[in-house]
Amino acid sequence: MNMKLISRDFYLRQLEAVRDIPDIKVITGIRRCGKSSLMDAFSARIAGEAGVNVVRINLNLKRNIELRQPESLYEYVESRYRKDLKNYLFIDEVQMCQGFEEIISSIHEESIYDIYLTGSNAFLLSSDLATLFGGRVFEISIFPFSFAEYLQYHDSSDPDGSFDSYVRDGGMSGSYLYRTYENAMKYVKAIYETTIAKDIIKKFRVQNEDMLLRIGNFLMDNVGSLTSIRNVAAKLISAAVDTNDKTAGAYIRYFCQSFLFYPVRRYDIRGKRYLEADCKYYLADLSFRFAVIGNKDPDYGHLYENLVAIELLRRGYEVYVGKLYQKEVDFVALKQGQRMYIQVSDNISGPETLKRELAPLLAIRDAYPKFLIARTRHDTADCDGVQVVDIARWLAGSQK
Question: Are residues 362 and 386 in contact, defined by beta-carbon separation less than 8 angstroms?
Answer without folding.
Answer: yes
